[in-house]
């Protein structure tokens, strides 16, 4: 597989250097250990929101650093958890005096390393709370995960909590809000083609010419089953029904509908899936009032799509609608 | 090749329906003939900016409709020019009483059909000017093109002219500005892997496992040569040098640097290329003051990258920095 890289062990470092050059107004990038913080420095009197995880899911999380979203992001190597020292230093640098919220996707390495970082930060006298995101209904337990995997709800939690954090909410309020977003969101995805790990040159898995992986994980972990490809409307329904059953969502619920591209899937196809997903949500009596369509949590060059449905309440709506100014999500400023 | 579609002949229609559902605040979609206009209706007293072209390059152009950019976009079928009646109706609907600027990429079908539409619009009494974009230095004449192909400068021209148009500029001023942007911009791209036409299921071309197409066109048209893949920094230099030589750009020029993803290439790799491109531009004495990195003019699921360098002047800078509110580009509002 061909890639635009120089040396396998420099991919993350060089991409971070590129982000620093491309977004000097928004981001400051630190290397060794690797993290991204806002160019404006820590926001005094505001809770700092920090996330991180393996690289290869861009724009998550580095592309979400900026006003109204994250204060810092800690990228690990490709599909590899960030280390405790990265998280500790990023949290310390981004801390604005009101405590730190860690938003952590439920993968064993991420959870452990954020936990170790939180202990180190506690010893330093910083107040830290962590919320684990585990919204993927596809499988219970998986490669790298005990329990459900954290996927699309992470993007929504970072935006919603980020918006509310700018308005001065306390660490306790934000941790509760983040927990509520995770508790009200459900996701599932599928892959038409695997991704290639640029550090190893290996495909994450292999699929027959007419096969898809239904319930795929964002590192190529197996999902529920391998099935023959179907029409987009059928596949969308196969993703939506387990999502809607799981919460369960009820007639009259107001929701945010997020159709995420896993990397290589053209926007044209994402909108075809979006059409089917919103049509189905409406048929089930849901009121779709907020939307997001695009590649926001990717898996390198994987072809596929994931859907997240979030039941909104007033506070979440306020956080979602608040101004945001990051490389990947920007509105109202 | 697998895709998220229902029926090959409904891909564009269903994607447009998805865009309408996903962006009700920004877009209104008309089908038969297909076009997208601003949800707010025509802006009275403003020149209407209209573009269009074959589908498969999303977010271009439909994702660029909105305040500060296009007033309407006319998507053809996949890699197929929009028809004169589409362009005529979109122009009529979007017209705000101050004339219409057509921004046309230099492909034979696009040029002819926009020309025919302009004649029909003239008969209807509308003032129309057209600017042809032909910024691709890769080849002179090509499949579908006499002269150079229109690529990345299209995105920049639509944003810059769109910003200046909101401030009330006349049709003549905007046509001159658009011509100046095209005249001051140069581009070139390369492909690591072909795209698949979802209407036919065919790959646009085939490449050996270590080959790339250098100077690729956005429909998979051949470029300058087929070469062995090199390191990202080497490939970036191979794209940048012909671009910088062609205008030519001079020491001290202030430029906008745009690194465009062709579809399947991860953001991680685009930032690696961006790093090399800005480093090289700086080494050549250019002052990079504006940047864009991401998949803005794609070729379905093609893997690859294209670079555009635009020499900025005050008016272009003003247009670029102006607020914009479209599905794909948004800032300042």
- Quaternary state of this entry equals homodimer
Query: What would you call the structural class of chain A?
Result: alpha/beta
Radius of gyration of chain A, in angstroms, nearest whole number: 19 Å
Low-confidence stretches of chain A: none
The beta-strand count of chain A equals 16
Strand order of the largest sheet of chain A: 1-2-4-3-5-6
Helix and strand sequence of chain A: HEEEEHEHEHHEEEEEHEHEEHEE
Count every helix of chain A, treating DSSP H or I runs of 4 or more residues as helices: 8
- Any idea what the shape of chain A is? globular
The CATH superfamily of the largest domain in chain A is identified as: Dihydroxyacetone kinase, domain 1
CATH architecture name of the largest domain in chain A: 3-Layer(aba) Sandwich
Q: What is the arithmetic mean of pLDDT of chain A?
A: 96
Biggest sheet descriptor of chain A? 6 strands, mixed
**Proportion in β-strands of chain A:** 25-35%
CATH topology of the largest domain in chain A: Rossmann fold
Q: Could you estimate the helical fraction of the residues of chain A in percent?
A: 25-40%
**Spatial gap, N to C terminus of chain A:** 40 Å
Largest interchain contact: A-B, 63 and 63 residues
How many domains of chain A, as an integer?
A: 2
């Amino acid at each position: 597989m061909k890639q635009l890289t120089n040396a396998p062990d420099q991919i993350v470092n060089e991409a971070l250097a590129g982000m620093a050059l491309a977004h000097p107004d928004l981001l400051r990038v630190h290397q060794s250990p690797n993290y991204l913080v806002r160019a404006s420095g820590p926001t005094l009197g505001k809770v700092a929101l920090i996330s991180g995880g393996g690289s290869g899911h861009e724009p998550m999380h580095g592309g979400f650093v900026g006003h109204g979203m994250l204060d810092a992001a800690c990228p690990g190597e490709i599909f590899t958890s960030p280390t405790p020292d990265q998280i500790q230093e990023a949290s310390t640098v981004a801390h604005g005096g009101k405590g730190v919220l860690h938003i952590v996707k439920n993968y064993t390495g991420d959870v452990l390393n954020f936990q170790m970082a939180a202990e180190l930060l506690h010893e330093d006298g910083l107040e830290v709370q962590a919320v684990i995101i585990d919204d993927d209904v596809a499988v219970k337990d998986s490669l790298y995960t005990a329990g459900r995997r954290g996927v699309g709800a992470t993007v929504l939690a970072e935006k919603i909590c980020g918006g509310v954090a700018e308005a001065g909410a306390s660490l306790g309020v934000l941790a509760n809000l983040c927990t509520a977003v995770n508790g009200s969101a459900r996701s599932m995805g599928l892959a038409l083609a695997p991704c290639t790990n640029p550090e190893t040159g290996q495909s994450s898995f292999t699929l027959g010419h007419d096969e898809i992986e239904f319930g795929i994980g964002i590192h190529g972990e197996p999902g529920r089953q391998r099935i023959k490809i179907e029409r987009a409307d059928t596949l969308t329904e196969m993703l939506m029904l387990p999502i809607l059953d799981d919460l369960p969502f009820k007639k009259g619920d107001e929701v945010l509908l997020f159709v995420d591209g896993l990397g290589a899937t053209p926007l044209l196809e994402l909108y075809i899936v979006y059409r089917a997903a919103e049509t189905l949500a409406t048929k089930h009596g849901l009121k779709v009032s907020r939307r997001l369509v695009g590649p926001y949590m990717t898996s390198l060059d994987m072809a596929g799509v994931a859907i997240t449905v979030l039941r909104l309440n007033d506070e979440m709506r306020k956080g979602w609608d608040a101004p945001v100014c990051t490389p990947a999500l920007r509105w109202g400023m």
